[in-house]
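> Could you send the Flagellar biosynthetic protein FliQ prediction when you get a chance?

Sure thing. Input:
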Amino acid sequence: MNGAEVLDVARDGLWTILKVGGPLMAVTLLVGVVVSLVQALTQIQEMTLVFVPKILALFAALLIGLPFMGDALAGHMARIAGRIVSGG
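Output:
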């Protein structure tokens, strides 16, 4: 395996990580910003208030996106297995 193939595998892995984790991070970020905005507008300074909506939103996003994530990870594994079988 030469350097270009290693970079190709690494690039594919990073792209898969972004496809799988990106939507979850975006949902969590959006919920965090909305809750923080509500806290700032209502002057409720409870530190633990942010966690429950984030966890619920993350769980809902996981339920909705799990088939897509599984497919992306299975595709990545198939590409890696194909490289292993072909010898590089």
